Amino acid sequence: MTTLTQDENKAVRLFFYSSIVWLLVGMSIGLILAIKYVWPNFLVWGEFLQKYLSYGRIRPAHTHVVLLGWMSMAYVGGLLYIIPRLTRKSLEHPRLARIIGILWNVYIVLAVIILSMGYTTTIEYAETPWPLDLFLIVLVVGTAYICFKTIAKRNEHQLYVSLWYFMGSLIWLPFLYIIGNLATYFISGVPQALAGWFYGHNVIGLWFTTVGVGFIYYLLPLLSKNPLYSHKLSLIGFWTIATFYVWNGPHHLQNGPIPAWLMKAGVVPSVLLIIPVWTVLANVFGTMKGKWHVISENVSLKFVVTGAIFYLITCLQGPFQSLMQPSAILKFTNWIIGHAHMPLFAAFSFVLFALFYHALPTLTGRKIYSEALMNWHFWLSIIGFLIFAFTTWTAGVMQGFAWTEGKQYGVPFLEVVVSLQPFSIARAVGGLLMFTGQIVFAYNVRKSITEGQPLSVEEKSSSTA
Amino acid sequence: MSGQSKERFMKPFIIGASLLFFIGVAATVVLPFYDEVMQRENANAAIKNYSIDSPEYRGRQVYIREGCHTCHTQFVRPVKADSSLGPVSVPEDYYHDYPHLLGSVRTGSDLTWVGTRWNEQWHRVHLNNPRQVFPGSTMPSYNYLSDQDTEDLIAYLMSLKPAPSTEGR
């Protein structure tokens, strides 16, 4: 089956278009934060804005909108689009999927309002209060139900590697979300912090990474028109990530008030994660054989290969900074901010951009409006990100070493803060470029829907798996 | 797509993924919970077991509401970068912290033992306009807090000090 039903199409597009809106909203909040970081009186115009847009209140709104609005909704759209293709079975309950999408948007709006009012659990990425959490859990379980049912009733009996990743992620997400958002209500102190960081790290590793890798495995053979390089490597990759990733929570409290055995238990699996990341990259390089030149002609391929490379860099940087000695310098500094944006923006948002450019023609029946704008999107995103990353990494090293020289509070600490300024301004410039790239993206998508060149009949049948 | 794929059954993936996940939960969340250092308070924790009608308790709620934990941490590590902050933090210190405020970034300095550094009047001036005390500071101004909230927050910050019985630790 290669064509989507009307209801499937509506569901996928709802998730995709909503996610683009959240991408712009979430990055706007990020930009506001970056500007307040150097100019604390930015938007302090009257008491209302001062209070409801204060840095401490909108920071979790930023993370919520980009993680649960942009990325997660785009991810669900991707799952609803790709699973029918890989299983040759039309999506189960597509109208339910659409309702879930509408309610998911409601969740994000409520979350932003509640967080801005100062209601927070303080657990990172789990700041929303439990009634909202229950609401989201129902939506996630509903999504998992639809996806599993579709896979169970598949017409293509062999399960392609992407489907293993999707199944794993759809089991992991609800459970880790419950641990981070609900279980944390019942414990206090360090155990609560450990449960919170279990969630905080695994939402990245067992949802954003694993679904994203599933997308890479789907897009790469399709865009390169080569078969997947090694099925055996993809098996090893899946089972090693499923085994090792889940142990990584404790490294967020490295050198902190946790038992020594737990610190080591968090680092060893973290280093072993080099195995699964290597299997993915080996498969990327192997699958691309003979087709590297296509990258310069195909923006989707450009995005997905670049995303895969940033995924590799993240998974080399991560284990490095979780070791006790590097952590002693880098923890709590800007370096971590630079690191955090790499998997989420440079790796897996890039994979999403590749997916959107690839899937939208099928969904809309029209070509993307402008290839030039697709390239602008790519270059603004990557150049903006590289500025963001290198300024935050450098600033982080500076902070870390300055603190070891005793500049830990009071006037000496402020010396360090002041010396960060040029880096923080540059980081905001990088963020502005990243954001501009997304405005170009959204504009191009909008124009494609209304003015994109209609696909010819041959193009329609060859653009699907 | 790949002609060599032999995986035809969902069950191994569902069972395997679930099992491996819960092993990780047991090891990194459940087991530490039962570690003896996580199950008892010490003198430092006892003085932070604020009663619900105390200024310190209310002040802690203000700290949470305004998101202070998004820029300030509350744990001291046995490393050079934390050498002047005060006693190294142990799990027992946080026994009564609900929710915990360990934090994850130091845009501002660590506050574990801030009660030993500045007095109430200093905090009043600093919270009202941080740049009056530290030119170049990027901390937001909290002049919009009510007098009650301000005094409560200051009471909380002043309480962040080692218990008297631990002097010399």
Automatic annotation (TrEMBL), chain A:
Keywords: Electron transport, Membrane, Respiratory chain, Transmembrane, Transmembrane helix, Transport
Pfam families referenced in this protein's UniProt entry, alphabetically: COX1
Superkingdom, taxonomy of origin: Bacteria
Alphabetical list of InterPro entries matching this protein: Cyt_c_oxase-like_su1_dom (IPR023616), Cyt_c_oxase-like_su1_sf (IPR036927), Cyt_C_Oxase_1 (IPR000883)
Membrane among keywords: yes
Gene Ontology BP, a term: aerobic respiration
One Gene Ontology molecular-function label: heme binding
Domain Cytochrome oxidase subunit I profile, first and last residues per copy: 197-465
Keyword Membrane: yes
Residues passing through the membrane, by range: 14-39, 61-84, 96-118, 130-151, 163-187, 199-220, 229-247, 267-287, 299-320, 332-357, 378-403, 423-443
GO cellular component terms, semicolon-separated: membrane
Stored PROSITE patterns: COX1 (PS50855)
PANTHER family associated with the record: CYTOCHROME C OXIDASE SUBUNIT 1, CYTOCHROME C OXIDASE SUBUNIT 1 HOMOLOG, BACTEROID
Protein name: Cytochrome c oxidase, cbb3-type subunit I
UniProtKB/TrEMBL annotation, chain B:
Species of the source: Aneurinibacillus danicus
InterPro entries noted in UniProt: Cyt_c-like_dom, Cyt_c-like_dom_sf, Cyt_c_oxidase_monohaem-su/FixO
Domain of life according to the entry: Bacteria
Entry-linked Gene3D superfamilies: Cytochrome c-like domain (1.10.760.10)
Keyword terms, alphabetized: Heme, Iron, Membrane, Metal-binding, Transmembrane, Transmembrane helix
Identification of the protein by name: Cytochrome c domain-containing protein
Pfam families the record matches: FixO
Residues of the Cytochrome c domain: 54-161
Segments crossing the lipid bilayer: 12-34
Cross-referenced PROSITE patterns: CYTC
One function term, GO molecular function aspect: metal ion binding
